[in-house]
Design brief:
43% strand; globular; alpha+beta; 195 residues; 29% helix; Alpha-D-Glucose-1,6-Bisphosphate, Chain A, domain 4; 8 strands; eight-stranded antiparallel β-sheet; disordered N terminus
Length: 195
């Protein structure tokens, strides 16, 4: 019996060691995620460490042609010709359901690209289903990878079912954001995203 317990303990130790080493070597790490709803606006904030270079990650984040690979909520997305001001523009169409209530919504906007460590996406309320929308990615090198601090704030123009709506939207934002981290990292490393 003692020999069986020792072999079982060794096997468990090897399994834990393998899982730990896989996580350290290849995966991207979510350090924090929070979603709040206040005064009609949703705010998602996260901090993640990617096992990818800053330049590769930057290239993926500004390429809206890739956004459908981040999350299943985005069903259509693309880069659009720059506006008269020369700023890069984007288009996304998303679909989501809260219980039996389903909605398709569109987001058009432009990117502010001042440096390779900051990306800001601004939603155009005149051509979108949002009164307000702003995303901000701050990138910096850390531990051989790239630390990304992400903030997303949006105010929908469409009707959201009271009481349950904010709860389900907060959950959808948190869940889809967490799942998107590894997919974005995979794309930045030139790999096929995991689903």
């Amino acid at each position: 019996m003692l020999i069986v317990k020792q072999k079982l303990r060794k096997s468990l130790y090897l399994v834990v060691l393998c899982i730990f080493s896989i996580n350290v070597v290849g995966d991207d790490e979510i350090r924090s995620v929070s979603v709040t709803f206040e005064d009609g606006r949703y705010h998602l904030s996260s901090k993640s460490l990617f096992a990818a270079t800053q330049d590769d990650l930057y290239a993926v984040l500004i390429d809206y042609d890739l956004s459908t690979k981040f999350t299943s909520l985005i069903v259509e997305s693309r880069n659009v010709e720059p506006g008269a001001d020369g700023m890069p523009r984007f288009y996304t169409r998303m679909e989501g359901c809260i219980l039996f209530w389903c909605k398709t919504f569109v987001r058009n906007g432009y990117l502010l690209l001042a440096s390779k460590n900051l990306i800001v996406a601004i939603t155009d309320p005149e051509t979108s289903d949002f009164e307000f929308g702003r995303e901000r990615w701050q990138l910096s090198e850390e531990d051989g990878g790239t630390l990304v601090i992400y903030d997303f704030e949006m105010e929908p123009r469409f009707w959201v079912p009271p009481i349950i709506g904010p709860y389900f939207i907060k959950q959808a934002l948190k869940d889809s954001g967490a799942r998107a981290i590894n997919r974005i990292g995979d794309l930045a490393r030139g790999e096929e995203p995991r689903f």
